[in-house]
Automatic annotation (TrEMBL):
Entry-linked InterPro entries: Aminotransferase_I/II_large, HisP_aminotrans, HistidinolP_aminotransfase, PyrdxlP-dep_Trfase, PyrdxlP-dep_Trfase_major, PyrdxlP-dep_Trfase_small
Organism: freshwater metagenome
NCBIfam families, per the entry: hisC
Keyword terms, alphabetized: Aminotransferase, Pyridoxal phosphate, Transferase
UniProt domain Aminotransferase class I/classII large: residue ranges: 26-361
Name of the featured protein: Unannotated protein
Length: 367
């Protein structure tokens, strides 16, 4: 007799993790949108100081980190939720809001964890196709909102397409969303966008208690291995809801200490953004020399369609190119696992890694 699991286990899709683990050092890891830069020395020192106290549990409320975030963003600490990465807050919010009979609206292709929300809760997920520029179609998303809608997600900049919308368009959209709907503006990559000041969306929180801004220390701060994210909320209710859902002590002492110290170094954030913009330009020009036009990126990665001959299968071409890149020591993300076969997503690495990617792709396409 076998163990019987709940039906939702079968519904939940397996996260398409990148093949970037247990590999030799001489590999260009361009598959996971990580920072190519390690944590700052001051951040490492802050983590080291905490290590001697690991026999104690971390502060379950993350009081010091929430105070630091409050000072940085001007949002009251009671309206800031912490998480073991931003995904922790996202999944807890889905569990708090969604249930059978409820509806969830999001764009597609978008972040591959969003389908987990509907699968785990039994809610009806409504995927709205991106427009011809691979941007969110906000009017189409509005048209899908009903009395049953509990949550609508806008990923800006969007993963995996790297595209972003100006804040003015998003602000107009938020004004039109009914007050009974929770609006999640997923801004994991917002620091990389040059369309608006990354802090401009904070003003929207004052007017919209149903708005949540989701952010992370995994990208621009280079703390992906520590898993610490946060949500800035228009009211305290979402914070109270997600804290009831999750296990206690969800954000480690080391993660909290690192995040607090990282916030003190906004000059490093600016330098890393500049580095990403340079890589964005150089990689974009390199792809165009190969006859490939990437989507307009406002993130730390590019999204592009591979050249596919008439009658060829995009999925087969994608698999061949991904395999060829891996054989040349370059790891990227296959588009099929992210919602669109025949496309690739490549993160920005060090200049030598970016050059290695372009040389490898040129070699493969030339062959």
């Amino acid at each position: 007799m076998t163990i019987e699991y709940s039906q939702r286990v079968a519904r939940i899709p397996v996260y398409p993790a990148a093949a970037a683990y247990n590999l030799p050092e001489d590999v260009a890891h361009l598959a996971s949108n990580e920072s190519p830069d390690p944590p700052l020395p001051e951040v490492v020192e802050a983590m080291d100081r905490v290590l001697r106290g690991l026999h104690r549990y971390p502060d379950p409320k993350g009081s010091a980190l929430r105070s630091a975030l409050s000072a940085r963003y001007g949002v009251p600490a009671e309206r800031i939720a912490l998480g073991n990465g931003s995904c922790d807050v996202l999944l807890a919010l889905g569990e708090a809001l969604l249930e059978p009979g409820a509806e969830l609206v999001y764009a597609w292709p978008s972040f591959s964890v969003y389908p987990h929300l509907e699968a785990a809760s039994g809610a009806r997920g409504i995927r709205v196709p991106l427009n011809e520029r691979d941007e969110h179609d906000l009017d189409a998303m509005l048209a899908e909102i009903t009395a049953a809608t509990r949550l609508v997600i806008v990923n800006n900049p969007n993963n995996p397409t790297a595209t972003a919308l100006p804040l003015a368009e998003i602000a107009t959209f938020i004004e039109r969303v009914p007050a009974h709907v929770c609006i999640l503006l997923d801004e994991a990559y917002i620091e990389f966008s040059t369309l608006d000041d990354p802090d401009a969306s904070l003003d929207l929180l004052r007017a919209h208690p149903n708005l949540i801004l989701l952010r992370t220390f995994s990208k621009i701060y280079g703390l992906a291995g520590l898993r610490v994210g946060f949500a800035l909320c228009g009211s305290a209710e979402p914070v109270q809801a997600v804290d009831r859902i999750r296990q206690p002590f969800f954000c480690s002492s080391v993660a909290q200490a690192a995040a607090i110290e990282a916030l003190r170094h906004q000059d490093a954030v600016a330098a890393r953004v500049e580095q990403a913009v340079i890589a964005r330009v150089e990689l974009g020009e390199g792809l165009r020399e190969l006859g490939i036009e990437p989507a307009d990126s406002q993130a730390n990665f590019l999204w592009f369609a591979l050249p596919v001959a008439d009658g060829a299968d995009p999925a087969t071409v994608e698999a061949e190119v991904v395999r060829g890149l891996a054989e040349r020591g370059v790891l990227v993300r296959a588009g099929g696992a992210l919602g669109r076969a025949g496309w690739l997503r490549v993160s920005f690495g060090k200049p030598t890694e970016n050059a290695r990617f372009l040389a490898a792709l040129r070699d493969i396409l030339g062959a």
